[in-house]
Design a protein that fits this description.
Structural class: alpha+beta
Distance between the termini: 24 Å
Strand content: 25-35%
Shape: globular
Order of helices and strands: HEHEEEHEEEEEH
Radius of gyration: 16 Å
Largest sheet: 9 strands, antiparallel
Helix content: 10-25%
């Protein structure tokens, strides 16, 4: 994708002189090293064993699983974001790298579907949704480490737009979607009472992955996340199973 949401999924945030754009989408990228997906507790609703390889989603399935304005509550409209940097974020802590990877538009090994960008709250709130697919067990190899990182990583330092930044990470409660799903909140202290907060919900169904990025800009916007995540998750799962 070459349209991004100012907030990811790529990374660039503009705060004064700094832009932090969490990209949600992109073209295909070269396959990188796959990280082994560790087992999860069945009681927690996560797979106990590494899933079997699944057939990649088709372009039609990815398109069908991506949100449109018609799927959203009243007040949301489509928007188009500017191109983001190709800079790949590198976390200074190994346990945080899956979170840093999540915030870049080019996910190693994935075929990316087109991203859908929206704005609400008279332009104050931003939302982006993208569906991607992986060969083999790539979807689990990408998603499972994010859940593990959300339990261990509380923050990391990286470089964006050539400037060093420090990000805080917190596990985010979000509706369970598909075979596995996780939510993380990535934030930056802007000084005083100001804070930039990016909410990301990622879900896996078969070989497909849904990535929802929400940047609340109004006081009560954060309360909308569960509803938005459920809408995105339900549409994605239905398309991936179809």
């Amino acid at each position: 994708m070459r349209t991004r949401i100012r907030r990811g999924v790529a990374v660039a945030l503009t705060v004064s002189a700094l832009t932090f754009t969490a990209a949600c989408g992109g073209g295909s990228s070269d396959k990188g090293d796959d990280s082994a997906a560790k087992g999860k507790d069945k009681a927690a609703g996560q797979p106990a064993d590494k899933p079997a390889a699944a057939t990649p989603l088709t372009a039609e399935q990815m398109k069908a699983g991506t949100l449109t304005v018609a799927d959203l509550p009243k007040g949301w409209v489509s928007m188009k974001n500017p191109a983001s940097t190709d800079e790949v974020p590198k976390a200074d802590k190994p346990e945080c790298q899956p979170i840093a990877d999540l915030m870049h538009d080019k996910i190693a090994g994935a075929t990316m579907g087109a991203n859908a960008d929206f704005t609400g709250g008279n332009g104050a709130n931003q939302l982006t949704h993208q569906v991607m697919t992986f060969p083999g067990t790539g979807a689990a190899d990408f998603v499972t480490p994010i859940g593990e990182a959300s339990e261990k990583c509380t923050g990391f330092k990286t470089t964006m737009e050539g400037a060093p930044v420090e990000l805080k990470v917190a596990k985010l409660a979000a509706p369970k979607t598909g075979e596995e799903s996780h939510g993380v909140r990535v934030s930056m202290d802007l000084g005083g009472a100001m804070e930039f907060a990016l909410n990301v919900v990622v879900a896996r169904q078969g070989s497909g992955v849904s990535r929802l990025v929400f940047l609340p800009g109004t006081p009560d916007a954060a309360k909308e996340l569960d509803d938005l995540a459920k809408r995105a998750g339900d549409k994605f799962v239905k398309a991936a199973q179809g």
